[in-house]
Fold this sequence. Notes:
Elements: E1 3-8, H1 16-29, E2 34-39, H2 41-44, H3 51-68, E3 76-79, H4 85-94, H5 99-104, H6 106-113, H7 120-135, E4 140-143, H8 148-165, E5 174-177, H9 206-213, H10 235-243, H11 246-257, H12 263-289, H13 292-321
Helix pairs in contact: 3-12, 3-13, 4-7, 4-13, 7-8, 9-12, 10-12
The chain binds adenosine monophosphate and tryptophan (TRP).
Amino acid sequence: xxxxxxxxxxxxxxxxxxxxxxxxxxxxxxxxxxxxxxxxxxxxxxxxxxxxxxxxxxxxxxxxxxxxxxxxxxxxxxxxxxxxxxxxxxxxxxxxxxxxxxxxxxxxxxxxxxxxxxxxxxxxxxxxxxxxxxxxxxxxxxxxxxxxxxxxxxxxxxxxxxxxxxxxxxxxxxxxxxxxxxxxxxxxxxxxxxxxxxxxxxxxxxxxxxxxxxxxxxxxxxxxxxxxxxxxxxxxxxxxxxxxxxxxxxxxxxxxxxxxxxxxxxxxxxxxxxxxxxxxxxxxxxxxxxxxxxxxxxxxxxxxxxxxxxxxxxxxxxxxxxxxxxxxx
Length: 329
Ligand code: AMP
Ligand code: TRP
């Protein structure tokens, strides 16, 4: 059975962008594939963060993923730093990764431009990401389109390692894109992202969802309720396509084009549908929040399974690379 691997950073809440762009797809893939889903805390610390918050964010992300439908009976859910082989393999891949490729990564360029001092960890981030996937020799990686470049590099790293050590050991991982490859934020201009403050949280209350949608950007041509608009360039219309019925989507487009209603009316329908769609996730997350022991149990079982698989890969890697085996005491 093909193996699926994907990761998400515990750098903030699960938002509608990573839910539609990745996590909803993960839930579907569990039916068909052997899946590994990883909360990538070692990646999260490559950017400025608050150490006192990391633990609770990691647990909250785990609870959100379980609430969103990741099923520990089918899939392995774990925390990256609980499996030390991720960093061990990253080092082994480090020695075959061209520096120029790392410097070319769009995310590296964007993130480093915002920092006055750039840590090497930010540059090496895609090597750790390649290690995450290759440690389990996974070949399918469901992500949003911002990760395609990192996956191309992961394939190149796998190829170079295989070529350097003369083995066809690591498969080349392929991206699995969901229909919602890039969800824009409430500003309608940049991708929905916690660091840009333009998100709607999957666990937001109905009031919070409305407070955020109400001022969100629409087609700027609709200055007043009587100006017709073009739904195709409106992010609210795009979100309707994920949360509203086919009939509603058609109605929204028609009323926008004919100025049959105002943007606020349009947003109210979207808010109601979004609130209804997210309500079951929010309820399950509240139950899990009252039972943090359950979340920790799931993560412990996931990490134990991963450590066993990861150690088998690392034993083979050490042997192929020619390291002296540690003698038994
Ligand atoms: P991150 O929160 O950066 O760890 O991203 C987790 C997953 O969500 C990755 O597969 C991303 O590609 C995806 N993702 C994040 N933001 C968006 C977005 N605005 N639209 C679509 N997918 C996204
Ligand atoms: N870099 C990814 C992101 O920000 C997260 C990630 C880390 C990941 N390791 C991964 C995604 C392995 C897929 C596979 O979204």
